[in-house]
Amino acid sequence: MDKYGRHITYIRLSITDRCDFRCTYCMAEEMTFLPRNEVMSLEECLRVASTFVELGVSKVRLTGGEPLVRKDAMWLIERLGALPGLENLVLTTNGSQLERFATPLRNAGVKRLNISLDTLRADRFKAITRIGDISKVLSGIEAAQAAGFRRTKLNTVMMRGTNDDEFNDLVQFAIDHELDISFIEEMPLGDIHGRENTYISSEEARKILSERFALIPSTESSGGPARYWRVAGSESRIGFISPHSHNFCDTCNRVRITAKGELYPCLGQNDASQLLPLLRTEKSNDALRQAIVESMGIKPYGHDFSQQMNSPQVVRFMSMTGG
C-alpha cells in the first residue's frame, strides 16, 4: 500500500529494452541498447515478480521492448504461469512473434494479450515502425485467436496527421475480429520532438468515432487506466487512456520495473528504486522485499504531462520504461 492508501496489485515487468520494431513514438531511429550485464537475467525477473506476488500483487504484465524477442522468454513465462497467488499473467506485444508463440503462451497460462496496432495500412505501418511488416502482426492476431485467446486488446497510439483518419477503420476491425481496442494519448517520454503537433485528446477521438458508432459509456475496468465505452450491437470494448486530459492517478494500482531492475512507482516521474544491486548482492529476499515496500513511499499522488510536450521532464524512452 502506498502512502495515499492505494493498494498496489499490478506490476508491469519489462524483460528487455530491445525490439524488432523502431516505432517513432517509442524509440529514436538509432537506439543504443543496454549491455547484457545491465539487464536482469530471467532468473532475476522471476525473483522480482515472485517477491511482488508474496507482497500481494495479483497481476503481472510482461512488456519490453518486445518481450518475445528475449531469448528463452518462455522459460520465465512458464514459471510465472505456475506461480501460486498470481491470478492474472498478461503480455503486451507488437504481435510480430505471435504466429510462433501464441499457442505456447496460452499453454503457459497467459490469460490475455495486448497487441500494439496503430494503422491497418502496410505503407503507413512501415513508416511508423520504421522496419515493421504489418502482415506478421495480422497473422499474429489470427494465431492468438486460433490458440484460444479472447478479449485480446489492440493498443493504438493516437497521432494527428499520421493515423487519425483511421480511427473508425480500426474500431471496425476490432468489432469484425471480436477484439477490444484502446486509444492512447501520446505521452512526452524520451527526447522526441514535435509531439505538440501530433497530440490528440481522447475527447476529440470520441467525437470522431461517435460520427460513425453509437458509443455507450461503461463502468467496466480491465484493472488498468483505460475508461471503456461499448458499441451498440457489439461485444467489443472501446477504451481511452488519457494521461493528459483525464488523469487516472487517484485509482493507480500499478508500478513498473524496467529491464535493468529500476522500480518506477510512476510512469510520469523520474524517481526510482534500484533493485538490480540487491538482486546481485543479497542471497535472501529480505532486502529486496524491504526496498519494494519503501518504494511505495516515493510513489506520487499523480503526474502532469500537460506542460511537458515540448520539453519532457521524463527523458527516458518508452522502450526503456516498459511499453
Report on this structure:
This protein is an alpha/beta fold. The chain has a single domain, classed as Aldolase class I (TIM Barrel, Alpha-Beta Barrel), CATH 3.20.20.70. Helix content is 30%, strand content 17%. It is built from 11 helices and 12 strands. The chain has a 12-stranded mixed β-sheet. A hairpin with an 8-residue loop joins strand 11 and strand 12. The longest helix is centred in the first third of the chain and has 13 residues, at 42-54.
Which secondary structure elements does this structure contain, and how are they paired or packed?
Elements: E1 10-14, H1 42-54, E2 59-63, H2 73-81, E3 88-93, H3 98-108, E4 112-116, H4 122-129, H5 134-146, E5 153-158, H6 167-176, E6 180-185, H7 195-198, H8 202-210, E7 215-217, E8 227-231, E9 237-241, E10 254-257, E11 262-264, E12 273-274, H9 276-281, H10 286-295, H11 318-321
Parallel strand pairs: 1-2, 1-10, 2-3, 3-4, 4-5, 5-6, 6-9
Antiparallel strand pairs: 7-8, 8-9, 10-11, 11-12
Helix pairs in contact: 1-2, 2-3, 3-5
